[in-house]
Amino acid sequence: MPVRLYMAMLAKNKNQEIIDAIKNGHNSIALNYLYETTLPHIIRFISQNNGDEDEAKDIFQDAVISLFTTIKLGKYNEEKEVGSFLYFVSRNLWINRIKKRNKQFDISKIQHTMLEESHLAIIITEEKQTVIDKLMDKAGLKCKELLKYYIYDNLSMKEIASIMGFSGETVAKSTHYRCKQKLVEMVENNHDLINLFK
Amino acid sequence: MMSLDIEILEKIGLYTRGEMDPDDNAAFQRQIEADAQLQKKLEASLIVDQMVVAYEAIKLRAQMKKDLKGPSNTKWRIFLSAGSAVLLAGGALYSIFYLEKSPLKTATNTTPIQEKRAVVNKPQTIIQAPEKILSEPNRAVSIVKQKEQQAFIENKQEITNSHVQQGLIEPTHQVTKISEDQIEVIKKPVDLKETKSAVTVSDNTPLNNTEKEEVYPAANTEKNKEYVFNPDYDQSWTIPYNQQKEPKLFKILDKAGKLFFQIPVAGFHPSDWKGESNNGSSLGMGLYFFNIEYADGTLEEGSILVTR
Prior knowledge:
The structure holds 2 protein chains of 2 kinds. Chain A is an all-alpha fold.
């Protein structure tokens, strides 16, 4: 097998390994890999474009949250490299931040980098985060826990029933839908929120 | 009304998770296209999913802040450097005064976990010792007490007659200076794996005490692994089995060697550890050790820093 093909195969396997680690909740494995491989590129990019290391770390964290959210929601194109996704998101987040900070700043001065075709990234802005915190708190502790198990951790109703001490799968299921219904109603009645998430 | 909504939500759930059979899926899709209310419900349901996932993902920020914290600007670097220098100086003074009262230790009396330092064999003279000492290699090691010698090495001081007067060097032995470029400090144990550390003199006579010499096999030096595990953020920690071997037993112990968790392993299962102990309680923060015993009788060890 040619060396280049072999290296590409190894890189692809590593990429899939990191995506699987995120899906399965092995966050430290994924984070440590991203700190080593991607963070230095983002620090370099931001340092070369009017920012410093602390700001780069901040942007990197937002990009990682976007990566985890996108993967967990099943919207991530697994053919794409996670490093390239993070770089793409970080670059866009950084442009938005300096645009807000300095409206006179000429964006064309930002170092031009070849990007892959558009990634479908779910960005959690500060505004979104505030709304999310508020609504999730209204849902109550039990609902938050149950929804986390089902939607974020992807556990089955049987597993949830066992963890949360429900008498059976059916109870877990009906409780889940009641919780979800509560949140769906809150969202339906809040047009600003719908626009924010569109 | 509520039960109808729940029924719709259940259908939406199956639809968005791709768990509907193809016929039902096609029919539901047509229903969505024809029903504006249903479209809104679907949209709201997707937003809720996004909110739940984002709410959990945001919690990663605390973990990342902790992982990435550290001084990045020059001011903090200066403070850190100054602090390190003070600590180093304190450590050197402590070792000089404290170890004067300690029994004499030989250069070979080391353990694999302790930080090891060695004067690396250089082609040129490191220590000029009288012929009497060269003929007695075991005694020669005790020319300078080990810890004091380390302090000299750390500080890269020149050994002078004043050290003889202070009693740091035995007066019967004449020692010339050790210059900076002749000293190399090996800080990481990994640098010493599968090697012997020894002080040598100009004629390459080894000075280490062969009777007390400990050679650490690769099994103990290569496989000491360190991990960090935060059960609040990670569902579980992947046990780092050697895939070339057949693991038989996995153990978690505390610093004092007390057994917290033990489980037989078969076919690399369990593959994960969720931070629990054998009696079901979760472990507190701190440093723990793990052992993996293999069918071939070998043992792998490492540490896990449990954080919350």
